[in-house]
Amino acid sequence: MAYKIPNIKTADKDEIVKHIEEYLNSGNSLAYINDLLHEIAPESHRHTAVARDIAYKMKATGKYELKEEPIIGGGARYFVSKLHIPEKTWAELHPLKDKIRTALITGA
Q1: How far apart are CA 85 and CA 59, in angstroms?
Q2: Which secondary structure element, helix H or strand E, spans residue 68, and what is its range?
Q3: Cα–Cα distance between 88 and 23 in angstroms, integer?
Q4: pTM for the complete prediction?
Q5: 16, 19, 57, 96: least surrounded by Cβ within 10 Å?
């Protein structure tokens, strides 16, 4: 499923983050925030400072990894990708095998 860029331009950073999350959830593995701002945000919000704020806001959630590339002459490019965090540990997925393993290790 391809991501459809919204026709509405928004200046709300939370709304922009939501659109970038949808972009990443639609099968894209890497989001170039500086470029996506040109599609999502109005003219006043297309500069590096806004891209930095959005990138660090997404990183703070703990679900995304941030890659920052400096640009010659000042500024930076911001890339965000999803972290692949398992939802459950091996012990939670296999409780019986975990109890057997623990019993073998402890000798109980």
Answers
A1: 14
A2: strand 64-70
A3: 25
A4: 0.70
A5: 96
